Amino acid sequence: IFLAIGIKCAFPLLHSWLVDGYPEATPTGTVFLASFTTKTAVYALARGFTGTEELIWIGALMTMFPIFYAVIENDLRRVLGYSMINQIGFMVAGIGLGEGMGVNGAVAHAFNDVIFKGLL
User: Fold this and answer.
1) 104 Cβ partners below 8 Å, 6+ apart?
2) Model confidence at 19, in pLDDT bands (50, 70, 90)?
3) DSSP line for 57-93
4) Run of H or E including 111
5) Residue 25 gets which letter from DSSP?
6) What is the pLDDT of residues 34-56, one digit of tens each?
7) In terms of C-beta distances under 8 Å and separation of at least 24 residues, what long-range contacts does 102-110 make, across chains too?
8) How far is CA 74 from CA 70, 82, 85, 119, in A?
9) If 0-12 CB within 10 Å is exposed, 13-18 middle and 19+ buried, where does residue 60 land?
10) How far apart are CA 61 and CA 74, in angstroms?
11) Residue 13 dihedral angles phi and psi, to the nearest 5°
């Protein structure tokens, strides 16, 4: 189950579907992908794996490595995909902390991310 959620959250080395999916989707499909698909996986992580130390490290990797790819990318939708992985990394790290503030921050950031990624 953890691996399936990791694919949906775009964990490192499992993220290629997200970056390749945004440029191929229609604008409406991109809004749906950005708003709902990955956020359901973040919700599943929050329900099932809160406080798992590995999530802290996975989230830290997710916040760092996509930025380098986004800087050299020319396609704006692929940049949006890398930005999505970066933002999900913050949520995953917050869930990995397992304390109230971390989980609440991750959920608040997920809600905020639904709004502003949909507007982009």
Assistant:
1) none
2) confident
3) HHHHHHHHHHHHHHHH---HHHHHHHHHHHHHHHHHH
4) helix 100-119
5) S
6) 778 888 889 999 998 888 889 99
7) 103/46, 103/50, 106/42, 106/46, 107/46, 110/39, 110/42, 110/43
8) 8, 12, 17, 20
9) middle
10) 23
11) 70, 0
Mean pLDDT on 24-32: 83
Give pTM, 2 decimals: 0.89
Distance CA 110, CA 104 (A): 10
Backbone angles phi, psi at 10, to 5 degrees: 65, 50
9 burial type by CB count under 10 A (0-12 exposed, 13-18 middle, 19+ buried): buried
Task: Specify whether the CB–CB gap between 22 and 30 falls below 8 A.
Answer: yes
